[in-house]
Amino acid sequence: MRQVDAVVWDVGRVLVQWDLSRIYRDLIPDPAERAAFTSAVVTEDWHAQHDAGVPLADMVAARSAEYPQHAALIDRYRTHWLESVPGPVEGTHPLVERLTAQGVPQFCITNFGVDTWAMFRPTFPILDHFAEIVVSGAERLVKPDPAIFHLAAGRFDHAPDRMVFIDDNAANVASAAALGWKVHHFGGDVDALEADLKALGVL
User: Fold this and answer.
1) Residues 185 and 93 both lie in one domain
2) Quick check: 112 and 138 in contact, CB under 8 A?
3) Residue 125: is the preceding peptide bond cis (ω within 30°)?
4) Strand runs labelled E in the chain
5) How far apart are CA 114 and CA 128, in angstroms?
6) What was the pLDDT predicted at 1?
7) Cβ(158)–Cβ(5) under 8 Å?
8) How confident is the model at residue 68 (pLDDT cuts 50, 70, 90)?
9) Residues 6 or more apart whose Cβ sits within 8 Å of residue 148
């Protein structure tokens, strides 16, 4: 018997790999120097404002004013962002396809900016399996804010306790769980995810 009616996926680091440093592999060939740049200038924390709705052009202009010596590298983030998503997370796409084959409704809630989503979405056909995708930048609501989960539950038209939410971020998982969602904290172990989905009766 199914314990849930629908499966809700995160995108980054659950369905697709994400690594900002890949944007700079050719221009900053030294790994230590590249890591320093992406931990101080073009960082995941800085990127997070794009997930919240700030356009890439505004972010790049402001960061370039802050670090004028790196203006060309910062602009490359805007023009070469797709290089940061090199491919799927191994093993999760077959699970999506199996769930589709078994008639299980699937959705996504993703922290993603509007501009990068427009670049990324056409390159990633596995997303065609999802009936609806809530994108943080479009909604101006970012996980783990409970508001994005309330929005998603209404839009997906399933009760939170009848959905399982899969995310790699512990704070996002905790927020969903506090609202009554069933959850799976994905750490890269596809076998563990598959076992959870089987225990919930959807595989």
Assistant:
1) yes
2) no
3) no
4) 6-9, 106-110, 132-135, 163-167, 182-185
5) 18
6) 83
7) yes
8) very high
9) 109, 134, 136, 139, 141, 142
Q: Which residue has 């990127």 as its token pair?
A: 47
Same domain, 78 and 132: no
Predicted pLDDT of residue 2:
92
Per-residue pLDDT of 156-180, as tens digits, reads 999 999 999 999 999 999 999 999 9
* Token pair of 103 as six digits: 């008639």
Q: How far is Cα 1 from Cα 82, in angstroms, rounded to an integer?
A: 41
Residue 189 φ/ψ region, left for φ over 0, alpha for ψ in the -120 to 50 degree band, beta for the rest: beta
The terminus-to-terminus CA distance of the chain in angstroms comes to: 11
From 64, 84, 104, give the residue that closes a domain: 84
Which of 17, 120, 33 minimizes the C-alpha distance to 73?
33
State the DSSP code for 89. P
Chain-centroid distance of CA 95 in Å reads: 17
Nearest Cα to Cα of residue 24 among 10, 11, 12, 40: 40
Angstrom distance (rounded) from CA 6 to CA 4: 6
Contacts of residue 179, defined as CB under 8 A and 6 or more positions apart, other chains included, come to 146, 149, 150, 153, 160
Q: Are 42 and 73 in contact (CB under 8 A)?
A: yes
Residues 99 and 188 in one domain: yes
Both 65 and 138 in one domain: the answer is no
